[in-house]
Amino acid sequence: MKPLKRYQYERYAILCNLAYPTTFNHTLYGFDKNGRHEITDRWGRTIIRVLWGERNEVVVVFKGSQSVWDWLINLAFFPKKIRSGERECHVHWGYYSLLEQHSKANTIKPNPHLSDAMNAEFMQASEKKLKQTALTLYEQIESVLLPLIQKGKRITFTGHSSGGAMAILVAHRLYQHQPAAIKRIVTFGQPATGFWNFKQHYPLATRTYRICCDLDIVTFLPPIPFMFWHVGKVLWLHNGKIYEDTPTMARLYRSIVSWLLRPITYHYMNKYIRNKDFFDKH
């Protein structure tokens, strides 16, 4: 498994952070002016952005929870049966349902300020967009990715929180018929996506990186031990270090101990040495 390089980590982290603002200039990050496609949820909010440029890589960014409804999805953890190759496995119903929803459809009306020819072109483009809303979110993603894959581009999926779970599910599903097209999956603060049988048969473990930061409680969800399991390689950012593949229970224990001992650790001399740069400003 290739290590995740620092510049890659920073790039995906920035893109995940930029998934939340309504607008941003994607060309500042190496993507083409027209290399952007946004997919909205049932309320018309952008939750998925597909970005591409001259590079061989397409980045699909999934936005995490934004509302009370989104957070309640985390609690819909009853099983959804899916196929992984020739086998059946179970995943989190709530995260799967996010990908099965349809975008909000808008009513198309002629624009009185346009000529007949321009209105015909406008209506044609609008009808095409309206037809897309009849597709599920996953089908919309696939309709954008397949032409790019045919051009030789490879896909990276990244997402924060529940967006990370969606990234895992979309990558797994796309792998079933486009296995060579997937470059990597990088998630941040992601809850577990599937049962043990999903972990066993997940084919992208060597291409999946799961970033956790200290005691991020969402990374321990759903709150049922030994029912849901994470996939891929975990990179745990804790106490200024990166730990690889630390078991979930060990991570929880060490985080709690670190939190309880924090008032004492601030007395250690290394804390004073680490903060020496503060004096350069005075």
CATH architecture: 3-Layer(aba) Sandwich
Measured by DSSP, the beta-strand proportion falls in: 15-25%
CATH class designation? Alpha Beta
Q: Give the SSE order as H and E letters.
A: HEEEHEEHHHEHEHEEEHH
Number of strands: 10
Explained architecture:
By secondary structure, the chain is an alpha/beta fold. The protein has a single domain, classed as Rossmann fold (3-Layer(aba) Sandwich). The chain has helices at 6-17, 68-73, 93-100, 116-133, 137-150, 162-175, 196-201, 248-265, 269-274; strands spanning 36-40, 46-52, 57-62, 79-84, 87-92, 154-160, 182-188, 208-213, 233-238, 241-244. The protein has an 8-stranded mixed sheet with strand order 1-2-3-6-7-8-9-10, sandwiched between helices. The protein has a two-stranded antiparallel ribbon with strand order 4-5. The model has no long low-confidence stretch (mean pLDDT 84).
